[in-house]
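Case study 2.
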Amino acid sequence: MPKYLISFPSAAMQVPDHKLAEVGRDAHAVIEEAKAAGVYVFAGGIDEDVLPFLVAADGTVTSGGYTWAPTLNGGFTVLELATHDEAIAWAARIAKACRCQQELRVFGLDA
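Prediction:
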């Protein structure tokens, strides 16, 4: 069954501070529904206080991410779903809970 990435960058979530607890509660409720439905793989957010590192094939480590790429941040949910329509429905539920649009992508199989 395909796995779908539902995500948003941090800047997309324009929520007043006094609403953050409500948004967190709503988002966690959707995740709990996904777990109960048996479609949850994992979810979380990038810790923006921890800098990324680039690791080369020879093991050389460089502080910072790709300089030419946009910063990777925000929230991510991975769900295993039977159809693209189901993925759209779950993305809409997450968008409503997070108060921002979600980007939907499907993972290619690694086999």
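The chain has a mean pLDDT of 94.
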